[in-house]
Amino acid sequence: MVHSGSASGGHYYAYIKSFTENQWYCFNDAQVTRVTYDEIRKTYGGGPSRGGYYISSYASSTNAYMLMYRRVDKEQNAVPMTPDQFPEHLKVLLENMQEAEERERQQKELDRSMCKIKLFCLHPRKHTMQEMRLKVHKDASLAEATQTAHQIANLGDVPLECCRLVMYDDCAESLECSLEEVAHQTMGQILGGVKSSYPFDLLLEIRKPHETFQPYKIGGTTVKVHVVNLEANEIARAVVVRGLKTQTVEEFKAQVAQQLGLPSSNMRMVLENYHSGLELLTAPGRMLKSEGFGKSNTVFIEFIDEEDSKLPFRESQFFEILDRHINTIVIYVHLPQEEEVLLEKQRMSSSAENDQRCGSVEDEGGTATARSTQQTQTANTALSDGYDSDLCDSSSSGCRGGDHSEDSSLTDSERTLVGDDMSPRNNSPDIADADDSGSVEERQPKLVPSVEMTDQIKRSMLEPSGSMSAAAPTAAASTADGVAEEASGYACGNVAQSQAEAAPIKEPRRYFRAWPYTDKEDGSRKLRVYVDKRITFGALKKELEQYVGIDSSHFKVFRVYSNNQEFECTKLTDNLVSYAEDTKFVIKLGRALKPGEHRMDIYLLSPNAPEPSKFLLDWIFTQGTTVLQIKQEILHKIRERCGRDIPLNRCRLRKKVSGNPGAVYLDSDRLDSDASMFLSHKVFLEVLSEPEKVVSSNSLVLFVRRWRPSTFTFDPLEEVILNERTLGALKDELSKLSGLDPSDIEVAKCPGQFPCPVSSLTVHTEMEWHGTAPSLTSWPLYISEDGLVVLYRDRNEALKELTEEEKQEISSRENVRAAKGAKAVPSPRKERALKIYMGSPPSDSGALSSDTKPSLNSVPIDLD
């Protein structure tokens, strides 16, 4: 019996010799295999790498083994059973196992003969590109493979003769070549054999019964052609046309006109170039390659409006429609429930009555500072529902996502066509099934432009090309004021009033169209929105007002990332240019930020409390507001809600830096100007025991704590204010607090996060204590920032000698304090080895003291 591994873990297996065959067998879990005697010998004592079973993670470890002997006695030795001696149930089991092994062998042989390749198909009814996996035998013909593809694509009533397989590049969305010339070959020959992956894919192409398949040569160009109707202000679904790069523009126009059944005499063709935008093809004799055509391209054609064709292209309606189209993306918006909106409206009405009050507060110099109605409204709407228990006898606290901003790259996928059906390929819900409880009219957007294909382009022109009218909702009629004006042209919102006041240039109207639907899983209200990505968030919020059901100043827009993290979009002048298709947003009710406003998280700082930092409330302030004004408004709100009157000169605001208290904000400081807050906008509110003493930004505010080695205790945290940044000034302040002589004081900078807990068992010997130093702000102290914790002690105080019981008590108490809030991480189970010594046990001074030679009478064996 062998244990391969180490004392930490390993694996057991055994070698047993059969007396009937005189052959060794390895019993390894459920596997039994024959082995040679040489392989068994290599097991002894580990050693170099070995072949066979031993090539594993245990091969480098020394093996432990145990020899078990059998007496050779033909009368008493047991012999293995033969299949003929098996009971009936074992014979049946053996037969089933053999049949399963045979089936598995045949399946593996079949799998080695199967070609597996990606298959794509543009579904004729859903108009979505489906991705599947085609498995065909290498000896199957192209016709058999086409039939298999037709079945797995679930095309229903589409005739098989209207389908064919072509080589396809999914990344470039390009038709590579057709397979008519190799139709006599097997699929293994066509695909180049059975491989784990192929450099190309297959596309199941579908034609209409009256059409014929065109041969595709290698090196051609795949062009998606969209027909544009200027009168209806709409773009049709794409029709794929395969051309040659050596064709001229005139020849390609003729091919498109023939395939779509359209006139080519007055056709205008525009190429969508991802480098230079939209380019009108005006040189009929130039080849497509010279015009910038690649493997896959998109063009737009128009052939009706002669008056518009006489205008410069950049000033034409043709360009205006295309410019809107290529800048349109799809976004999804999660709306709040109607009950929440109703409650928010009631709260707004109540707040409006309270906001009529206006007061003034005396500052320390006796000057009356009047709070405007706008400032009072800001304070009232910004205060969190949960106050700290120390202020309001409530333990509730809250947190929310900050106003972070991140860019996301725009995808290169095909832009969603105006009027297209909701497509599963775009992860979009089905309009028809979005809300079974409501009528079609109820599910339609209220203010949207017409973008569907209409009867102005004859169906006879479009039906041969495979284009069909998109069944999208139309604009609902409304008699409300302003509806007719907003519904005409491009349906997009005006910029919010505050936005318009801040920006002297009026924002042009941008395209916006929304489909409301109800999520079947959770019943929430959602929107699928086609929107011009150049629209600003201010205009977007204005458009969303009618769907949210409340004014845009009372809801916030959060972007939802792939990890479900939410970030508020606070800059109303930003647009959606950097946002990708299918970006998700969530609407949350609450006071939205106006231009120049910022949201600030306020935490209550209690240095000596068990929880020194607690979230208190969030606040909205205007850039340039003084700290004194903010303090007045906060204290006024606390007095109203909690009934606690905090004197103005006994509280302060200070910066919060990664959980540590930072610089103290002076009353005259203006946030985001004198007192820069960067992007965090997090501050501490600290209630003082005496009037504020910090009057200069040059002062250094430190927390100090005395260490008493004679009792192994720490005094509570206290505060010192240094007007001079020297060690002498610090020791003078410490002398005033403790009554010690400055020459007897030693200090040490306390590491870690506030309040910087340290162990009393190690603080006296392992901390770097200094009685003198050349500088306070440089080596070796580096005490130069506000909010640092400094320990000090009396150099003459003797260290108490602790007993073992006292040490254990202190250690246990500190471990409990440090473990609060920490999560226990389970460790994986480890095997523990048991050493068995055969013979006399080794002595402490003899066998165990030797590092080079093991005991001759002992054989260590590792057991689980």
From TrEMBL:
Catalytic activity of the protein: Thiol-dependent hydrolysis of ester, thioester, amide, peptide and isopeptide bonds formed by the C-terminal Gly of ubiquitin (a 76-residue protein attached to proteins as an intracellular targeting signal)
Keywords, ordered alphabetically: Hydrolase, Protease, Thiol protease, Ubl conjugation pathway
EC class of the enzyme, as a word: hydrolase
All copies of domain Ubiquitin-like, residue ranges: 223-301
Compositional bias ranges of the Low complexity kind: 367-386
GO annotations of cellular component type: cytosol; nucleus
Gene3D superfamilies cross-referenced by the UniProt entry: Cysteine proteinases (3.90.70.10)
PROSITE patterns: UBIQUITIN_2 (PS50053), USP_3 (PS50235)
BP GO terms, sorted: protein deubiquitination; proteolysis
Record-listed E.C. numbers: 3.4.19.12
Any one GO molecular function term: cysteine-type deubiquitinase activity
Basic and acidic residues biased stretches: 401-418
Record-annotated USP domain positions: 1-72
Spans annotated as Disordered: 346-455, 809-864
CDD domains: Ubl_ubiquitin_like (cd17039)
Feature: compositional bias, Polar residues: 842-858
Keyword Protease: yes
Family per similarity comment: Belongs to the peptidase C19 family.
Protein name: ubiquitinyl hydrolase 1
Organism: Rhipicephalus zambeziensis
